[in-house]
Amino acid sequence: MAHDEVISSIKFDDRGLVPAIAQQFDSGEVLMMAWMNAESVSETLDTGRVCYWSRSRQSLWRKGETSGQTQSLKEMIVDCDGDTLLLKVDQIGVACHTGRRSCFFSAVRDGSLITIAEQIVDPSELYKT
């Protein structure tokens, strides 16, 4: 299925990427930020399973493919400038490779960086191949 209208509304950067923020659809919890390209956007819309672009591997990254910690797309929202996506998702398990529910687990409080979310899963258990 072609998604030409959606793809043309997105302003990808000079590398062909756009930042995508994943948010738990029912609680509003911000889970993570990753990158998408036109192919990953299209695949996500086709399958309903969130697919990102891995800059380190230079390949599609189907969230949960190796860890089982998947994201199902509930809604994709394009911001006013077309240069950022908000993905409302249903996150199964943890979103962060550190074994935490969210990648946003450190906060600055009283001038110091503190951990505000503990590890739920040992990362070595997430990526058994």
Write the layout of secondary structure elements.
Layout: H1 4-9, E1 18-24, E2 30-36, H2 38-47, E3 51-54, E4 59-62, E5 71-78, E6 85-91, E7 106-109, E8 112-115, H3 123-126
Parallel strand pairs: 1-6
Antiparallel strand pairs: 1-2, 3-4, 5-6, 7-8
Describe the protein in words.
The protein has helices at residues 4-9, 38-47, 123-126; strands spanning 18-24, 30-36, 51-54, 59-62, 71-78, 85-91, 106-109, 112-115. The strands form three sheets. It has a four-stranded mixed beta sheet with strand order 2-1-6-5, with helices on one face. By secondary structure, it is of the alpha+beta class. β5 and β6 form a beta hairpin. The protein has three helices and eight strands. 22% of the residues are buried. It has a domain at 4-93: Roll (Ubiquitin-like (UB roll)).
> What's the main sheet like?
4 strands, mixed
Secondary structure category: alpha+beta
Low-confidence stretches: none
Number of helices: 3
Q: What is the β-strand count?
A: 8
- The Cα radius of gyration reads 15 Å
Share in helix: 10-25%
Portion in beta strands: 25-35%
CATH class of the domain at 4-93: Alpha Beta
**Roughly how many Å apart are the termini?**
32 Å
Shape: globular
Task: Write a concise synopsis of the structure shown.
This protein is about 15% helix and about 35% strand. It is an alpha+beta fold and about 130 residues long.
